[in-house]
Automatic annotation (TrEMBL), chain A:
Protein name: Cysteine desulfurase
Biological process terms in GO annotation: amino acid metabolic process
The species this protein was found in: Desulfocicer vacuolatum DSM 3385
Keyword line: Iron, Iron-sulfur, Metal-binding, Pyridoxal phosphate, Transferase
The protein's required cofactors: pyridoxal 5'-phosphate
Protein family per UniProt: Belongs to the class-V pyridoxal-phosphate-dependent aminotransferase family. NifS/IscS subfamily.
EC number from the UniProt entry: 2.8.1.7
Organismal lineage: Bacteria, Pseudomonadati, Thermodesulfobacteriota, Desulfobacteria, Desulfobacterales
UniProtKB/TrEMBL annotation, chain B:
InterPro entries the record matches: BFD-like_2Fe2S-bd_dom (IPR007419), BFD-like_2Fe2S-bd_dom_sf (IPR041854), NIF_FeS_clus_asmbl_NifU (IPR010238), NIF_FeS_clus_asmbl_NifU_N (IPR002871)
Name recorded for this polypeptide: NifU-like protein
A Pfam family it matches: NifU_N
One GO process term, biological-process aspect: iron-sulfur cluster assembly
Domain NIF system FeS cluster assembly NifU N-terminal: residue ranges: 3-124
UniProt keyword annotations, A-Z: Iron, Iron-sulfur, Metal-binding
Top-level division of the source organism's lineage: Bacteria
Keyword Ribosomal protein attached: no
NCBIfam families, per the entry: NifU_proper
Keyword Iron: yes
Amino acid sequence: MKTIYTDNNATTMVAPEVLEEMLPYFSELYGNPSSMHSFGGNVGLKLKEARQKVADLIHADPGEIVFTSCGSESDNAAILSALAANPDKKHIITSVVEHPAVKNLCQSLEKEGYRITFVPVDNMGRLDTDILYAAMDNDTALVTLMWANNETGVIFPVEEIAEKAAEKGILFHTDAVQAAGKIPIDVSQAPIDMLSLSGHKIHAPKGMGVLYVKKGVKFHPFLKGGHQEGGRRAGTENTASIIGMGKACELAGSHLKEMDTRVRAMRDHLEAGLLENIPAATVNGEKDNRLPNTLSIGFDAVEGESILLLMDQTGICASSGSACTSGSLDPSHVLMAMKVPFESAHGTIRFSLSTYNTMEEMDHIIEVMPGIIQRLRDMSPFWKKH
Amino acid sequence: MWEYSDKVKDHFLNPRNSGVMESPDAVGETGSLSCGDALKLFLKVNDNGRITDATFMTFGCASAVASSSALTEMVKGLTLDDAAKLTNDDIADYLGGLPKEKMHCSVMGQDALRKAINGYRGIQIQEKPGDVVCECFGVTDLEIIEAVKDKSLESAEDVTCYLKAGGGCGNCLEKIEEIVESAKVEA
């Protein structure tokens, strides 16, 4: 059975070009980039190249790129640094639909005495910017918002919000883990102070993150120790992964157009096909303002885990917005915040595509899904025959 | 990925006795849409008080479907007296075990069965007594105390696994922990 992988917002395949670039740095080229000898120094030169490629993807300066171990570390480092840099300010603004890396840290800071404003979203997943702007005050140390939502793909107007934050002298951080490689990111066009990226979402390996720290922004390191990363993140560099990340960013930049055209067309085809062939199905999130690769779709009266397991039987990989897969029992906090009715929230499936998907795969999914949903509806006490 | 036993997988992929029963003698319903799982159990009972047929309709995850399917197989042929003695642990055992986090699926089976039998016998099902502790799933303090004693639950986490209480917003977890601690002392 062939695997059809449509779970790219969860993780992606390491691109063959990325792997090829990395392999020598696991074996013969094992030098420490900090060493005085050229055996290590040459690895250092290769890291410099990689740093430039990462910077290019987001239009930053290579000196503004800090390599970390994952997106979550980048988010934690950014938020804690903002607080350390503003010891007299005790307020953070974020949203109700953030990734746990931001949400759970903010909730734990709240217990420590910080004031957190969780800005709500509407039923399309759009941020309530009136509440956001009204919450900015002299006590606000940081605004931290995701660029695009991992579950629905809905894009927040981060550039506009960064401007407002800058006007008030408030630091602005964005978790761009899902946006990177799917839509253009240009930090030179907006006063974004910090920005997080994750390697494994853009065909680099797992265990690789990036934090962009704008030149001039005071930074307090999360991990203290050696002088690596300009003193902003200690620890001997994860050389092979950094080199892979460089290659992955180069590829991501060159694939942006394909994301916006071919991948978007596949997503739209999948969406239309499912809506046409399955009654009582609803797309979650603002349709016109989504990542081109993401489709969150709820099927009334059936439950996500059951859908996923039946899909798994046919080799299709996706995620659910339902609870049962994660251990929590409510539907995801994102769907709850959007007030998606329970009836479809529990039966929500997220398809997230990459440039490696094909139109044939979309047709196969469209062919298989109606039977899966019907099979579960046939035994659901809540399914009223339409 | 949950680690489901082969028997759970089999009962999920090939559910026994799913469907609505024509003119059932007893019906037991539990769960709701908002809770994320629900079971409607249908029974045929003969004049000797023996269950001759059972079917189910279930909304929920794989273990909810498997628990329902298993339940219908288990009760067929039993007298109502014997069926009334079935517990959620019997359902889980029949399935070769359930992940701890999914034990509430077997609890749902036991609950629907009790309701069906009580309904058949004309026993008024009491409104859930006690004070609601978990707003998300409507679980009361008395239900938690009963479960702690019956199932030897040790922590709030265990209570969530068995009753779902605390598994939604999580605001009541501290309160549940207190109830568990005092119930353990009593038990």
